[in-house]
Amino acid sequence: MELLYLSTFATIFCTIFVFSLKYLSLLRWISGRAYVLRQNQEKVTAEEVLDLIKNAKPFPVSCQKGWKIHCYVHDHRLWFHFLTIPNSNTASLKVFAVFSKLRASSQSVLQLLKDVSMTCEWKPGVVATSYVRDVSSHDVPVKSKGVPPMPVKQDVVREERVCQRPSRPFDAWWQPNITQTTTEEYRRLWHREDNGCCWLLQMNEKRQAWTFFLAQPVEGWFEVDQSLVTIVTWSSGNDGNESGEMAAATLGSLREFLHLHPALLSKYKTLASQAAAELLAQVLKASNIELDKGAEEQFSTAGGWMFYGFESDVVILKRLFKAGSHVQSYLGKGVVEAPPQTVWEALRNPRTRFTYDESLKKVDILQTISENLRIVYLYHEVHQILKKESCDFCIVQSERIEGEKHILVYQSVDWATTPPRGDTVRATLLPSGWIIEPVQKDKKIHSMVTYLMQIDCGAPKPTSEKMPFEDMVTKQPLSITFLQQYLQPAVMLARRQSLPSLTNS
């Protein structure tokens, strides 16, 4: 009889225990704290996160897509969802999301997210940033089937952040004037889709935490400078809710930054516009020169410009500066026997500079900000009798068309991923560039080409009367002649015929 009572009691106890577990699990699911237990949990990689987002299709964030509102924080509704990585033993991930319309184009948002020099300006808690490894010129290796077949760019960055809580409880009272920070490394991947949508994934694979930024263009011609920005975040362990609140704080801070500091976001566009205005102003001053006048009169009437020479059908002018200036400025003007569009297409491609600038040895497009705005790296070498000298630039290259006039502008900029090299002179390029205008010659439309080069390579050496790289700079106006040779019909035809063999090789 005692055994019967004992077995009955054990059965009732086990039944109550099982139902309790199911009831608690149900409560956890309703309250948004559900989890899935697996014996062999795997770490999530950045490629798997992209695979997850690609297959789950969680956008737009709404109830129709399975999202539920978690809370209201930092003036945003914080949503949560459960996503499971396909073909993985990893538990379902509880992700959080916030979204808002921001005053910036999707590509401008992506540019701001990528620029580590601006991160401290808008991201809460970040006090310092730096590059660990910049491999943005390479595609992500396709090792996972989840990686989209597209040129996804990547790099590795380091962020120093303020600790959310003291590492030791007593630090709060015995070290009140010390701010504790922690440093973490993140792998970042990004891409701009053909439809204008831009995204960036930032992940700490060691700590198993990631944040996904999505910027979508807002439809409507009157809203071209606005985008819908969504932030999705996940963190393993007990930091999930905190990561959701941080996503809301990040979006609010980003929105406020774009509202209060639009000039910082468009600094490259502003710089390019200023450089174009200076380029046109100097060309206008130079056009006032009277070649039959003396040097002093030319200098006074043409804003410092003087006749320097005439070589290979190119008129060359030189601009003189006040004593103490190291700027070397030359302007060339000549006719290129090719239509303006042909000349324009050759000049706007940075990689064709090799054809008309013999001192150029390396060109690298560091960043394409927009269709007509790029950051470009240029490396030059000058060989002398017993030595070789080199200089380089980081420039913003901008394009604009005003009526029949095509304008290509260059201006030096600082770029975090390309610091000065110890064995190379980092020169400064002042507003420079090309102006192409149509001109009729022999009943055909050709191009009147103006090329202005203004460069500061530093002070001359005490043992030399020449400015640094003066021989290279004085030859820049002759680029018009070399461009003419490059665009000759026979050369163009030979290049087209050789292109298929080069492509197949």
Description:
By secondary structure, this protein is of the alpha+beta class. The protein has 2 domains: 32-261, START domain (Alpha-D-Glucose-1,6-Bisphosphate, Chain A, domain 4), CATH 3.30.530; 269-495, Alpha-D-Glucose-1,6-Bisphosphate, Chain A, domain 4 (2-Layer Sandwich). The chain is 29% helix and 35% strand. The chain has 13 helices and 20 strands. The protein has helices at residues 2-30, 46-56, 106-114, 119-122, 171-174, 240-260, 262-265, 267-286, 295-301, 340-348, 470-474, 479-486, 489-504; strands at residues 68-73, 76-83, 93-102, 126-134, 153-162, 181-192, 198-204, 209-217, 227-235, 305-311, 314-319, 327-336, 360-370, 373-383, 388-402, 405-412, 425-426, 428-429, 432-441, 444-456. The strands form 2 sheets. Strands 10, 11, 12, 13, 14, 15, 16, 17, 18, 19 and 20 form an 11-stranded mixed beta sheet that branches. It has a 9-stranded antiparallel beta sheet with strand order 1-2-3-9-8-7-6-5-4. β7 and β8 (209-217) form a beta hairpin. The longest helix has 29 residues, at 2-30. Residues 24-40, 141-148 and 497-505 have low confidence and may be disordered.
